[in-house]
């Protein structure tokens, strides 16, 4: 189990998870290539560490703004950090960014209405967007790394989280803390992602024949 977690741990530069992220980022770069430079990118929920793992910091081809709930500061040229909420990007004008990028964030909004708000704001402030999220139907739940976890009744998921350290979470004996951790995640399938981003292309990231994650991207002319 520890070996599997190391493979799935996106904090490790050499993990399988980051290998998939780098492949995904190469696809993103291919979409950016025809755009006038520098490309203004808003990364919703992004980190400087992620861009470092992608070998994409201090790159004159783009100017990146990282948006998170907590304030911070950037350590490299061409990157800024702002605090904000993905559900309310009112500090930005419509079309202020050439591209809005988001990696594994939208599923952390627990209610469908909150996911709709984020999707609407992403489409408003970006001329284009590239939003990735894990596929609900992939057999391994990506946050708790437990087979079929997302399909279990809420009470069973809470009981597991209270008793065991799963994925990125230590065991949480407190029932309310365990319930919050479980309910924080609302995974999406391709149909729901299309509804959030009407007219988007849906790219399926596959492991063998199974779709591991989904990417909604739109605003590009082709």
Question: What can you tell me about this protein's structure?
Answer:
- The chain is α/β, with parallel strands linked by helices.
- The chain has 2 domains: 164 residues, Rossmann fold; 41 residues, no CATH class.
- The protein contains 7 helices and 7 strands; from the N terminus they run H-H-E-H-E-E-E-H-E-H-H-H-E-E.
- Strands 3-2-1-4-5-7-6 form a 7-stranded mixed sheet.
- Strand 4, helix 4 and strand 5 form a beta-alpha-beta unit.
- The longest helix has 17 residues.
- The N terminus is likely disordered.
- As for the CATH topology of the largest domain, it is Rossmann fold
Mean pLDDT: 91
Number of strands: 7
Low-confidence stretches: 1-7
Give, in spatial order, the strands making up the sheet with the most strands. 3-2-1-4-5-7-6
Residues in β-strands, percent? 15-25%
Q: What percent of the residues sit in helical stretches (DSSP H or I)?
A: 25-40%
Biggest sheet overview: 7 strands, mixed
Counting H and I runs of at least 4 residues, what is the number of helices?
7
Counting helices, strands and paired strands, the structural category is: alpha/beta
Fourth-level CATH superfamily of the largest domain = Vaccinia Virus protein VP39
Oligomeric state of this protein: single chain
The CATH class of the largest domain is: Alpha Beta
What is the number of domains?
2
SSE order, one letter for each helix or strand? HHEHEEEHEHHHEE
**General shape:** globular
